[in-house]
Amino acid sequence: MSHLDDLPSTPGKYKTDKALPYGILHHHRYLRLSKPTLWASLFLALFLFYLLLSPPPTPSRRSLNDSSLSAAKYGGSQWEKQVRKSAHPRSRGGLTVLVTGAAGFVGTHVSTALRRRGDGVLGLDNFNRYYDPKLKRARQGLLERSGVFVVEGDINDAVLLKKLFDVVLFTHVMHLAAQAGVRYAMQNPGSYVNSNIAGFVNLLEVSKAANPQPAVVWASSSSVYGLNKKVPFSEIDRADHPASLYAATKKAGEGIAHTYNHIYGLSLTGLRFFTVYGPWGRPDMAYFFFTKDILKGKTITVFESPDKGSVARDFTYIDDIVKGCLGALDTAEKSTGSGGKKKGPAMFRIYNLGNTSPVPVTKLVKILEKLLKMKAKKKVMPLPRNGDVEFTHANITLAQSEIGYKPAVDLETGLKKFVKWYMGFYSGSKKKSSW
Ligand SMILES: O=C(O)[C@H]1O[C@H](OP(=O)(O)OP(=O)(O)OC[C@H]2O[C@@H](n3ccc(=O)[nH]c3=O)[C@H](O)[C@@H]2O)[C@H](O)[C@@H](O)[C@H]1O
Q1: Where is each NAD-dependent epimerase/dehydratase domain found (predicted)?
Q2: Per residue in 269-280, pLDDT tens?
Q3: Would you say the ipTM is above 0.90?
């Protein structure tokens, strides 16, 4: 994939390299302290060898029973103070929200929007290398300037999550941490299972055990509609023909969420995002790397459908998505359970958040050419069987009537804002870290 060429190799969230220090460092210390007898040394050497060969117990997989909470990294009065301060609402009646994936594209925008209106926000992000971590760090800078502290950690780390819930009584969780990207699922399927399934279950486990339980709003995806042909896509349509593992994990997430709602009384709202774009966006998405490649004079590959038509997307501008997220948080009823016990039925909702006006990818390219004042070098090729679907188109009636969702930005207007940001950010301008 050309757009990933100059990014670091992308192990996504499936990193185990952080896992070793805990066990290994501990044993290194032991080595220094041990008596230098031949047998003891031999035994230790064998034991270390065994540890190195065995699969590492990654910290991201630490269970709640693991008492070795890495106090060095998390915890301590200073850390707790930062966590509490960030999560504390500034306005009366404000929400107290844990935003996972806070340094991600949508996470950054939602976190700052919540903070701006006076809610308390604590961010969580593992800063993985799926795409340029420098962009995530720049977003973190923005968040910090807005008063949002981002805890560096993984949603699979149950001990960390539990600790966060011990320190703060979250009223809401906005769960945006995920392994995104449709095509990358063919390269690193494990990363999707790790984040979108295991990580989500871990978050729900900790949320259901919390007292009080938070209301959880999470990111699902338009990709769950898969190979559906009936348009516009409606929440009541069947969605059981996913075209990518990404889509399958997002659909699985919806089923998993339903069980936590049913068994534990957790209030759950899933938002099916439709190809979200805008400033501070994801470099793995077509509008982003098309911009980069057009500017560099590199050839872009534009997919076409089998009938030689252009593939189309219901591109949705980030500010509209943010409004949808806030609408979902504001209308979410409380969970009914506490401490893992259901007390009554709780809310379970799924909404499409799209723009409801699909645009062919060829048109996207034309708009970019106009905004960049450059002609794209294009190679048109049939849509490969890589997880992409031919078109998406959202029916947003339900979101409109129930959470007040009303998209207002058309693709050209939104791309104009994106291009302006892109030019500032990558030109090294001093203003690059502003909105
Ligand atoms: O709504 C979602 O749920 C998903 O949206 C996004 O997926 P997509 O809609 O597939 O966006 P994106 O990759 O930008 O491709 C856009 C268009 O360009 C076409 N495309 C792509 C690459 C290429 O080289 N050429 C090309 O024509 C391609 O065929 C497509 O028609 C998120 O990445 C995903 O994480 C998820 O959130």
Answers
A1: 97-334
A2: 999 999 999 999
A3: yes
Q: How distant is the alpha carbon of residue 91 from its chain centre?
A: 27
Specify whether the CB–CB gap between 313 and 392 falls below 8 A: yes
> Does residue 14 carry a catalytic annotation?
no
Residues 6+ apart with CB under 8 A from 247: 182, 221, 223, 224, 226, 387
Site to substitute for ligand 1 among 246, 292, 313, 314, most atoms within 8 A of C-beta: 313
333 located within any domain:
yes
Residue 313's φ and ψ, nearest 5 degrees, are -130, 150
Length of the chain, in residues: 435
Q: How far apart are CA 378 and CA 362, in angstroms?
A: 10
pLDDT of residue 278: 98
Q: Which domain holds residue 221?
A: 178-276+316-354+393-408
Domain CATH code at residue 228: 3.40.50.720
With 50 as the cut, is the pLDDT of residue 349 above it?
yes
Q: Which tokens hold the place of 377?
A: 């070098």
393 Cα to the center of ligand 1, angstroms? 13
**Nearest Cα to 362, choosing from 298, 306, 288, 311?**
311
Query: In the prediction, which pLDDT does 184 show?
Result: 96
Phi/psi of residue 305, nearest 5 degrees: -75, 165
CA–CA distance, 216 with 212 (Å, rounded to integer): 12
- Residue 13 belongs to a domain: no
Residue where the block lists tokens 């080595």: 31
Question: Amino acid letter at 160?
Answer: L
**Number of domains making up the chain:** 1
**Does any domain span residue 74?**
no
Out of 131, 184, 225, 246, the active site residue is 246
Distance 396 CA to ligand 1 centre (A): 20
pLDDT tens readout for residues 34-70: 455 445 555 555 555 444 444 433 344 565 444 444 4
Judge whether 262 lies within some domain: yes
Q: Ligand 1 centroid to 286 CA: how many Å? A: 6
- At 134-189, the pLDDT tens digits run 999 999 999 999 999 999 999 999 999 999 999 999 999 999 999 999 999 999 99
